[in-house]
Write the structure tokens for this entry.
Amino acid sequence: MTPSLLTRVMRDADVARNLPMPHWDVLVRQARHANLLGRLHHHLAAARVAVPERPARHLLSAATMAARQHLSVRYEVRTLLEVLEPLQGPLVLLKGAAYVMAGLPAASGRVFADVDILVARERLDEAESLLTVQGWSGDKLGAYDQRYYRRWMHELPPLQHLFRGTALDVHHTILPPTSRSHVDAAALLKDSVELPGSPGVYVLAPVDMVLHSAAHLFHEGEPDNLLRDLSDLDLLMRHFGSQADFWPRLLARAEAHGLAGALRLALRYCQQELQTPVPPEVMQRSGADRSASWRERMLDFMYARALRPMHATASDAWTAWACRALYVRSHWLRMPLPLLAYHLLHKALRPAHTEALEDNRH
């Protein structure tokens, strides 16, 4: 497929110079549907691209909203540090909150729905109790989903603060224990890095941060955010790629965590879609430069459609099918076949009004 206008502009901001106004309209719509409107603002500003007044208002508004979210995240992190202080361990941030607190390029214009943290599994009950006392509630889900999270997933049921309305995901690892990848959660915590100027606040080591982003994208990514998540990976690898021995350590760590497959896809599609500068030897060693098997060709076909803005101007007749197929694939990677069949059957048979009623109660 021909790259979308947004993808071409994210690759090279000069593509946006002298765009006719109808193309600006398409670009703004695609970026909004990909949750990349704020990042696009910073991308174009860094390249000193003159943006016409009307699209500029949309871009600036999105960037301003992202900046306000970042302020909110900083407040929530300070609060969580106090609430979880009795655990006497590090507060390890994941994904968007980690990018913001660490001041990484991947925080640029980044919007997200929740704060994600990592807690040792043996301290999970204590952490939940401390959070509940301070107003965090996880009772929005029904009984089945509560059991599903607590028995099979890598995190507690999503928590929401009763007064501030902010959302929190408490992880004990980065993939479900039932998944085909066996991530060493203890190693993630052990190698986490304390942020300068923020005592007690930690983020994953650079290689683990990249691998978590890759695992999230290719094991459980949501269609609306796949291109945004790929952009995160692109910015992380561009930033960390200049560090000595980063690439060899990334490959070795991927093998140790059972995430070589996710990393291979991350390298392959970052380079294909966003022209991420990955060393040729890394592409070769990871197998990211090959698509010999029918499975790999099928993945190429599906991700060529899913790693795009979820907008009519960037879709074709196969896009909806590709997104559904990748949704099933993500569950296949996360749980054994009997559990997968049971879970998908339960979701399919659950009355459509049930979830709406549960949401309306809150």
User: Anything to note?
Assistant: The radius of gyration is 20 Å. The longest strand covers residues 114-118. Confidence is low (pLDDT under 50) at residues 352-362.
